[in-house]
Amino acid sequence: xxxRVKRAFLDTEDGQILYRIxxxxxxxxxxxxxxxxxxxxxxxxxxxxxxxxVIAMDLMGFGDSDKPPRIYSIADYAKTIIAxxxxxxxxxxxxxGNHTGAYIAAEVAAEYPQRVEKIILSNIDKFxxxxxxxxxxxxxxxxxxxxxxxxxxxxxxSRSIYTDSxxxxxxxxxxxxxxxxxxxxxxxxxxxYCSIIQERLSLxxxxxxxxxxxxxxxxxxxxxxxxxxxxxxxxxxxxQAKFVEIEGGTFLMMNQKVEEISNLVIKFIDxxxx
Length: 274
Prior knowledge:
- Helices cover 40% and strands 18% of the residues.
- The protein is of the alpha/beta class.
- The protein has one domain (6-270): Rossmann fold (3-Layer(aba) Sandwich), CATH 3.40.50.
- Strands 1-2-4-3-5-6-7-8 form an eight-stranded mixed sheet, sandwiched between helices.
- Strand 5, helix 3 and strand 6 (116-122) form a beta-alpha-beta unit.
- Helix 2 (74-87) crosses helix 3 and helix 4 (129-139) packs antiparallel against helix 7.
């Protein structure tokens, strides 16, 4: 497999899943946040591909993957990861997930431990069902199509507090546009997972690296969705977990903290004794 990033599709009973693949060696699966796509890892893929066989998916309902015929659960998304590993003949993989992708990575490790080497959970939280319910009620109309398109300018500028890069902001906006007119698949999946997350995390027995962006958690605290201790407490649930803060890391830190994140992930995967 060359270091050049190629695109391909996985056929499933619920539609096609786009994935990007590059490099050789150990498998490293990258799972994006909601409402982004595998483009979230555009800067990281070429770096990881120097060391690993990198696979980055557009989760069902996002990017250039098909919209699923029903609301997917975190368990449903985890099954698609296994289906792709099977398709590619990969027996075991390392998995990095950010936000929604982190819950999916955790579920793969909990449900299919024999398929996982190590996992990196970035910006994962222990939300309560009440917090997620309130968040969804407040933001349920985010992806509704309005006849006057009045929401587009607002949404285009909504990430400007996290980045001064117009190019990155616009990339995120284009990904978000592909979610308009459809349910908030990722948020609904995480909401359902809230009731069982502690139980599922306790089943993880592989080496786990937890990354937390300092600006990311501040933003969640501001909207009443999480607290810093929600993240650090996860290290007490997962038996082999290590917690690292990414200073200045925002919701867009996979694009903004490329060198720091890639160094941490490569060191974590390559060290035999964690």
